[in-house]
TrEMBL record:
Keyword Signal belongs to the record: yes
Species, as recorded: Rhizobium mongolense subsp. loessense
Protein name from the UniProt record: DUF1236 domain-containing protein
UniProt xrefs under Pfam families: DUF1236 (PF06823)
Signal peptide range in chain numbering: 1-21
The keyword Signal is annotated on this UniProt entry: yes
Assigned keywords, A-Z: Signal
C-alpha cells in the first residue's frame, strides 16, 4: 500500500512540474513588438486557433526580425504573431 501511495505522489509531482514548465512566460522586448506592428506583410490563412504554444506548419513562412535571432513573426488570419523561429511555436499574439 505504501508503495502505491509513494508512486501516486511521485507521478502527481512529476506531472505538476511539467505543467509549470509549459506556462513559462516570455518577456518580449518592446522594439520587437514595435517592429512587428509596423510591418506590411500579407496575412496567411491557418485552420484552427492561433494561440501561444501553437506550432505553425512548415508551409507558413516566418519572417525574420533584424538583430533579433530569437524572434520571428507572421501575420496569420489577420493577426500579428510572434514566433520562435527554431521551434515555430507561437510566443505571443500581438494585440
Amino acid at each position: 500500500m505504501n508503495k502505491l501511495v509513494i508512486t501516486a505522489v511521485s507521478l502527481f509531482l512529476s506531472l505538476g512540474g511539467a505543467a509549470v514548465a509549459q506556462t513559462t512566460t516570455v518577456t518580449v522586448p518592446g522594439e520587437v513588438r514595435t517592429y512587428v506592428i509596423e510591418q506590411k506583410s500579407p496575412s496567411v490563412t491557418f485552420e484552427g486557433e492561433v494561440a501561444v504554444g501553437t506550432a505553425l506548419p512548415d508551409t507558413v513562412e516566418i519572417h525574420t526580425i533584424p538583430d533579433q535571432p530569437d524572434y520571428g513573426y507572421v501575420i496569420v488570419n489577420e493577426k500579428r504573431v510572434l514566433v520562435n523561429p527554431k521551434t515555430r511555436a507561437v510566443i505571443e499574439v500581438v494585440e
